[in-house]
Amino acid sequence: MFFLPLRAFSITEMPYLCCASLHTTIGMNSYVGGTILHYEDSRKVWYEGGTFNKIKGKAVHRTKLPKEVLNEVTFITGCLQLIKRKVLTEVGLLPEHYFIYYEDLDYCIQVAKKGYKLIYDKRAVIYHKCGGTASYKSPTSIYYSNRNYYLFIKKFFSQHRLYYLYLIIGYFIRILIKLLLYKVEAKKAVMNAFKCNFLHQNYNTVTSKKDRKL
């Protein structure tokens, strides 16, 4: 039995060949992702494998096709994943407290810690409506990306004091820059994320009246 995130169907177009390729690859592996192209312009690549960037403390997408059909990676985006039941049984489901953003990276790290390999299959292709969950640079997107980055690094790196301090300093610097450069609604989203993380004020709903639809 396999698991494919349901949200993929609401914001992507999935050709039959994609499912066939993933099904073939999952037979030899436990956690598989594929190529993701922009829905509006299929010449543009959104994801062709990913890595966890230790300098940034976040996932980075590759946008150039590798030569090999199958590649081991350290990050598979939640937009396209095929996961064996045994992984779900051992690791559990994707963490829900993030709501959107960083839940897939969190899960990839958990899966890797259990000894499973993450495999990217470049033959499996879907067309992704980028920003379909929350439009890029909307207050909702800004809020959850800023809130969840802190939740992620605190969960995995708070025990590594020097590295955690490095990530936190970078986080605060970016927060200050955003508060200087962003417009009013975006600034509110950044501040709400900060208050949620450090003042424990709960902002689990959308952050602006203008942005009620995700």
Keywords summarizing the entry:
Spore Coat Polysaccharide Biosynthesis Protein SpsA, Chain A; two-stranded antiparallel sheet; 2 domains; globular; seven-stranded mixed sheet; alpha+beta; 214 residues; 42% helix
Structural class: alpha+beta
Please identify the top-level CATH class of the largest domain. Alpha Beta
Number of domains: 2
End-to-end distance, in Å?
Answer: 31 Å
Would you give an account of this structure?
The chain is an alpha+beta fold and 214 residues long. It has two domains: 2-128, Spore Coat Polysaccharide Biosynthesis Protein SpsA, Chain A (Alpha-Beta Complex), CATH 3.90.550; 139-208, no CATH class. The protein is 42% helix and 19% strand. The chain has seven helices and nine strands, in the order βαβαββββββααβααα. It has helices at residues 7-11, 16-26, 85-91, 103-113, 139-157, 161-181, 184-198, and strands spanning 2-3, 12-13, 31-38, 45-47, 50-53, 58-61, 70-73, 82-84, 118-128. The strands form two sheets. Strands 1, 2, 3, 4, 7, 8 and 9 form a seven-stranded mixed β-sheet that branches. Strands 5-6 form a two-stranded antiparallel sheet. Helix 6 (161-181) runs antiparallel to helix 7 (184-198). The radius of gyration is 18 Å and the shape is globular. It starts with a strand and ends in a 16-residue tail after the last helix.
